[in-house]
Design brief:
This protein has 578 residues and is mainly beta. It contains 1 helix and 47 strands. It has a 47-stranded antiparallel beta sheet that branches. Strand 40 and strand 41 form a beta hairpin. The chain is rod-shaped. The N and C termini lie far apart (178 Å). The relative contact order is 0.04.
Length: 578
């Protein structure tokens, strides 16, 4: 195999190759000088700046020490002098003990030691130990965004900031003029500052956000203070002099006012909203010493409680709850340890409570005028004002008190299941299996219903009690005390008044050894409730030891056993009337 023959040393080919190599080396050198990064020049031995106004550079890094913190700016181009410096396409890094900040900005300029970064600018803060992003922000537009003086930040444009980790999650809108000191604390002296609560979780949020006129907050917005606050809530809003941010709560320590979309307006002596777990929303707002009112067609409705939990589902009131409503010129008042008012579906209220209803627990009491009802649990449909009361029920009216089983109705008419026991203020009692209480009338039914007073015991399928009158419209059986023993009565209708018992329709009276029948009988009793006189009318019939006969009317005195017939009489007997 023959070796490759090369041209001689003085061949023109070698001169051309050498010239091409020299040209390529020169070209690469010039290109490298134009594109390679350049350090920011220092000073000469005489102290003169090496970087003049006409100096330029590309792809460099500038580092400044800001007390205990260090700022590093990477740039694409740099131009100007040491006193008037301009960087373009800047990526910055601020290393602090509390966090590591990253930022990007189209331009950054330094004049007399003060840095100004322009928008649009992006910010991030990372945990220095884990490099996990704790929050991020952005300044929109093209105007100057941030002024930086010795570690002090001044926002020249509004900042949108989002906290991403921990209980401080949420979004903040800081207006132009916001500041951040060397310790990392944000401050706004002139708002509005707007905070949007985090969204998410299994149900609707209660606290949606806040707007304030002034703010200071520690890094990450875990703690802070706002002034002149208006909070947006589901179904309403509240206004407070201040709000405090803590790792576990947002609280309003000063007296506050609130409004609800269902018409309630009022005040409270402070409130709090527990911060949710990461990934969830604010589910409840708790108010202390709650006082509210709203207008109804008949007047003003009032609501008060020691504590209230405001949720998307409604209100949960606890501690000396007083709910007061207008009712036909008077007031209907509910007093209870706990009251739940449901406005919408959702947890934190009893699942059995329908929308549009309220329930009171812990032995609530309902009062109107001189009347009252007490029950272990009361539920009301708010639109119709119809109540359902759990057994046992205790009631009080002008005429007396009663106990019963479950009940339902409204303040104009109630129905209670038995067993029913009514104790009248004037003396006596009623018993039955059902009570209807309408205005001042008590109606008892049973198998049978019974009425008793001292030595008076009467019963029937239905008893009506109004004022001093006890009526038996569907039949009567019973006994009255008489001087010679009990007087037994039976009639189709009857009523007991103060000193009389009036019977009608197939009346039968049976004494000791005698029987009386008539269409109508009036029995008069004395102060000791003992029978003094019996007056009978209409087809009167008498049999027994007092004689036997029929007539139109008679008067009978059981004590002295005197019988006085009136009108035409047939029969025989003893005494002047025969």
């Amino acid at each position: 195999m023959r070796a490759l023959a090369l041209p001689p040393a003085r061949h023109p080919l070698w001169r051309g190759a050498g010239a091409a190599l020299l040209a390529s080396v020169l070209g690469l050198t010039i290109r490298f000088m134009l594109t390679s990064p350049r350090e920011l020049p220092g000073r000469t031995a005489a102290g003169d700046a090496l970087f003049s106004e006409r100096s330029r550079g590309t792809l460099g890094t500038l580092t400044e020490q800001l007390g205990p913190n260090r700022m590093v700016l990477d740039y694409k181009t740099i131009a100007g002098s040491e006193e008037d410096l301009r960087l373009e396409d800047v990526t910055g890094r601020l290393e602090e003990q509390a966090g590591l900040w990253r930022m990007t900005s189209p331009t950054a300029s330094r004049r007399e030691g003060v840095w100004t970064l322009s928008a649009p600018m992006d910010l991030q803060v990372l945990d220095p130990a884990t490099s996990q992003v704790l929050g991020k922000g952005r300044v929109e537009g093209t105007a100057p965004a941030l002024r930086w003086t010795g570690g002090l930040w001044e926002g020249l444009s509004p900042l949108h900031w989002e906290s991403l980790q921990g209980s401080s999650q949420g979004q903040w809108e800081l207006p132009a003029g916001w500041r951040r000191d060397v310790a990392g604390r944000f401050q706004v002296d002139r708002g509005p500052v707007v905070w949007h609560a985090p969204e998410g979780g299994p149900s609707r949020a209660t606290l949606l956000g806040m707007e304030a006129e002034r703010l200071w907050a520690t890094p990450g917005f875990q703690t802070g203070h706002l002034e002149q606050v208006r909070a947006r809530l589901t179904e309403g809003s509240l206004q407070a002099m201040a709000a405090d941010l803590a790792p576990d709560t947002v609280s309003w320590p000063a007296p506050l006012a609130f409004e609800r979309q269902d018409g309630w307006r009022g005040e409270a002596q402070g409130g709090r909203a527990p911060r949710p777990a990461p990934g969830s929303s604010f589910q409840q707002v708790e108010l202390r010493d709650f006082r509210a009112h709203r207008a109804l067609p008949g007047g003003l409705e009032n609501l008060a409680a020691e504590g209230v939990r405001w949720t998307p589902a409604g209100l949960r009131l606890e501690g000396n709850v007083v709910w007061d409503q207008p009712l036909d010129g008077q007031r209907l008042t509910l007093k209870a340890p706990r009251v739940f008012i449901r406005e919408a579906a959702g947890p934190d209220l009893p699942a059995s409570l329908p929308v549009g209803y309220a329930v009171a627990e812990g032995q609530p009491v309902l009062l109107w005028g001189s009347r009252s009802l007490a029950s272990p649990r009361m539920q009301v449909q708010r639109a119709s004002r119809r109540w359902h009361l759990q057994a046992p029920v205790l009631g009080r009216g002008e005429d007396g008190t009663f106990s019963s089983g479950a009940g339902s109705g409204d303040p104009r008419s109630w129905t209670f299941e038995g067993p029913v026991q009514v104790n009248l203020a004037s003396g006596g009692s009623l018993r039955g299996s059902r009570l209807v209480w309408a205005e001042s009338r008590w109606t008892l039914t049973g198998q049978p219903a019974a009425w008793s007073r001292l030595r008076e015991r009467l019963s029937g399928p239905r008893i009506l009690r109004q004022g001093e009158v006890v009526a038996f419209p569907e039949g009567l059986n019973g006994t009255l005390a008489a001087p010679d023993g009990d007087l037994f009565l039976r009639a189709e209708r009857g009523q007991s008044e103060a000193q009389r018992v009036v019977l009608s329709g197939g009346v039968e009276c049976r004494g000791q050894g005698w029987n009386l029948a008539a269409q109508a009988v009036t029995v008069t009793v004395g102060p000791d409730r003992s029978v003094k006189l019996i007056q009978a009318q209409g087809a009167v019939s008498l049999r027994g030891r007092l004689g036997e006969g029929q007539g139109e009317a008679l008067e009978l005195e059981p004590g002295p056993r005197i019988v006085r017939w009136q009108g035409r009489v047939r029969g025989k007997g003893a005494g002047p009337s025969w």
